[in-house]
Amino acid sequence: MSNWKEEYFAALGVRDQREKANIALYDAYTRLADRTSAIQQQQQAQSSSTSSLPQPPNKKLPSKPDPSSAQPPPTGPITSDVLTTTLKELSEAQKSRTDLLDKLSKTTSELEKLKKKTSTDARRIADLSGERAHFQVRIKDRDEELRGKTKLLDDLHAEVVSLNLQFNMAEDRAKKMEQDNQELVDRWMAQKRHEADEMNKTSKFS
């Protein structure tokens, strides 16, 4: 039976689909790791370039900083674009992962149903195969019985034909004997009439 082969190939197909479906997720995380590394390298380069600038002469700093002179930390346009793109790709990767998990759950459920159905079908096929073998044996026995009865019927038919032939021959012999007997009776009666006639003639002359 090929049910175990079909189940094996179906499991391989599900595995391939799952692995191929996760490729997008793996690529997204790879791109995210690359971009994160690029951001870190860029930040390190900026910090190293800042530290390499000449330091201004020491002056007495005011006790309180001027709010108007406070500047926001430098964030270049390249870093913002990379961060935005990375977050977008991360969001898409998370969404793709959720979709893949849903598909995996559905595929696994369907595979379990197919396994149960395959197991049930295998038991049913085994039962039907046993019944088929049993019926084949019974049919073989009936064929042998029919051949024996057919031979017996042929023998009886031949015997009936032989008996009919013997009966016809006996009937023909009986008819022949009846004719012969009738002829003998007729001749005997004719002889007796002739003798009676002769006796009558003799008695008239005497």
UniProtKB/TrEMBL annotation:
Going by the UniProt record, its keywords in alphabetical order are:
Coiled coil
Q: Which domain of life is it from?
A: Eukaryota
Bias (Low complexity): 36-52
The ranges of region (Disordered) come to 36-80
All copies of the Autophagy-related protein domain together span 7-200
InterPro entries in the record, alphabetically?
Autophagy-rel_prot_16_dom (IPR013923)
- Which residues does UniProt call coiled coil? 153-187
Similarity comment: Belongs to the ATG16 family.
Q: What is this protein called?
A: Autophagy-related protein 16 domain-containing protein
Q: Which organism is it from?
A: Polytolypa hystricis (strain UAMH7299)
